Amino acid sequence: MEIDEQRFSIKDLENLSGVKAHTIRIWEQRYGFLKPRRSDTNIRYYTNDELKKLLNAALLIRYGFKISHISKMNDEQLEEKVLELHQNQALNDRLVNELITRMIELDVVGMEEILDHFILNKGIQKTMNAILFPFLERIGIMWSTNRIHPVHEHLVSCLIRQKLIVGIESLVNRQLIDQEALLFLPEDEYHELGLLYLYYLLKQRGLKIYYLGGSVPLNNIEYIVKQKNISLLFTHLTSIPPGFNLQFYVHQLSIHLKNADIYISGPVVEQIPKKSFPNIHLLYSQQELLQEIEKIFLNASQLSKRIV
Prior knowledge:
This protein has helices at residues 10-17, 21-31, 48-62, 67-70, 75-83, 88-104, 108-122, 124-144, 150-170, 193-204, 218-228, 246-256, 286-307; strands at 37-38, 44-45, 180-184, 208-213, 232-236, 261-265, 280-282. By secondary structure, it is of the alpha/beta class. It folds into three domains: 1-72, Multidrug-efflux Transporter Regulator, Chain: A, Domain 2; 86-170, Methionine synthase domain (Methyltransferase, Methionine Synthase (B12-binding Domains), Chain A, domain 1, Orthogonal Bundle), CATH 1.10.1240.10; 172-307, 3-Layer(aba) Sandwich (Rossmann fold), CATH 3.40.50.280.
């Protein structure tokens, strides 16, 4: 028996596959590629099987196949062609698609197998950049619009969180440079995955980390910054809690922690006015984040050498 959470609108398919809704309709009309069903109230919807078929087709088209050719394949042939793609990026894209379909099927074991195998061969950092960030970006729209049941988000978040923590614990606990950093999320913000990844990156480079996690009041942040004289603060904002005034909060951070450099990354950074606060550093992409961390590491290393 099919459950409601596995019914997708054409907009859902667009968000998850990257194929525009009008293109999907053309494929249906011209090639009979997808066969949407209708609910009791006559609303068109697509099943998980249709989603999987579209994800495979979108991947093949990205690497040179034509929809006229793809539409003649059955599901098995379609999957075989996807498995024959050997470009590195194609392999990563295929794994992202697999993570999406396994998440919808609540196949936690399957997701864990994909992640464990990739981490074993490529490491945590490449796993995050190559498959997990693209995966989270694709399904983020679905989560934010409640198009996927909250249990999917909880299962995925906990699974990725476990992998990140294992990666953090596997790093040698030694301070390579004379620099400390505080990591936190604002009150009522609990999306920790980006912050945990920051923890991994900073610990990997030998910084001493004070990790406060999610939903931290500003006065708590002030307290530990003053007690330990911390000059580097990081937060990763995935979403804005209801009623949260982002610009006001950033202003408060700038004023109350005026002696610290505060780095803000995450999807909502685009909503913060540029160059508004002298000690606030906005990082708009993973590349910018990594570049800034490298700059911090190099500056601290050079300072340590001069002192010696």
